[in-house]
Every structure is written in C-alpha cells, then in structure tokens.
Specification:
single chain, 82 residues, alpha+beta, 3-stranded antiparallel beta sheet, 3 strands, elongated
C-alpha cells in the first residue's frame, strides 16, 4: 500500500526525508517566496541541489526551527523584586 508522505505528520517523519521549498513553506505556513528569500539571505534552513531541484531534509528543518525558537527566548529570566 502506497501512502503519501504529506499524510505523515511532520513530527513522525524521518530526519533524512527530503523536502522541497514548497514542502517547507507548507510546514512553516509561510509563503514560498519567503523561504526563497531566507535561502538567498542565508538565514533559512540549509538547502542543496540534486540536479536542478532544491531540497532540505526534515532534520535540517527541525534544526532551523529549534534555532529560531531558542533565538527568540530571552537570555535572562524576568527580574524579580527584592
């Protein structure tokens, strides 16, 4: 039985699974042009070419998401009253 990889939730996908720009945009709920801009600026997930097509892996996208989440957290906790 063939199953469509889009039917598999992101958290259940294997780290080595290939993703296209469109896949990444869908997963991040971001326009494809934004993902292209991130790639051009070097601020998005790492992409590589196979032939003429661009891909990243689920593992690389997870790393990108984790890095973004950690970067948005404050380095110090909220000050407490003394």
């Amino acid at each position: 039985m063939n199953s469509n990889t889009h039917d598999v939730p992101f958290h259940a996908r294997h780290d080595d699974e290939l993703l296209t720009l469109d896949d990444v945009a869908e997963i991040l709920r971001t326009p494809v042009n934004t993902v292209r801009w991130w790639r051009q600026e070097g601020t998005g997930p790492e992409f590589f070419k196979i032939g003429r097509r661009l891909y990243t892996t689920v593992g690389d996208l997870r790393t990108f998401i984790r890095t973004q989440r950690l970067a948005s957290q404050p380095l110090l906790g909220k000050p407490t009253a003394v």
